[in-house]
């Protein structure tokens, strides 16, 4: 859950705009930084699906959207979907679509990213790897 203290602490160090550390008047109260929302996505992805993949590194992020603000008390959950995989010698480039929603199912973040992942060893004709 996103607490007001967490929002203010992150913003105080990384994105000290008044909407994050002040009264958030323009949004009817303090809201989380988009950078904070992105960090929540990354943490959930690493703890979830990325923990079962052989991720080497991220390469590019595109089409990031923050369609609604994250507020204190919001509970964020998300999805990660593999869009396409382009094999290489020992690695592959995976196109990933990511999304976070709040407790009401309202999207708060969407993005596409490319990540380098290790290939699974292939079996030889005699069944060995």
Please provide a brief summary of the model.
By secondary structure, this protein is of the alpha+beta class. It has three helices and four strands, in the order αααββββ.
Molecular structure report:
This protein is an alpha+beta fold. It has helices at about 5-15, 20, 35-45; strands at about 55-65, 75-85, 90-100, 105-120. Helix content is about 20%, strand content about 35%. The model has no long low-confidence stretch (mean pLDDT about 90).
Write the layout of secondary structure elements.
Layout: H1 4-14, H2 18-21, H3 34-47, E1 55-65, E2 77-87, E3 91-101, E4 107-118
Antiparallel strand pairs: 1-4, 2-3, 3-4
Assign the structural class, choosing from mainly alpha, mainly beta, alpha/beta, alpha+beta, or little secondary structure.
Answer: alpha+beta
Sum up the overall morphology in one term.
Answer: elongated
- Indicate the low-confidence ranges by residue numbers: none
Distinct helical segment count: 3
Instruction: Provide the succession of SSEs.
Output: HHHEEEE
Overview features:
single chain, 129 residues, alpha+beta
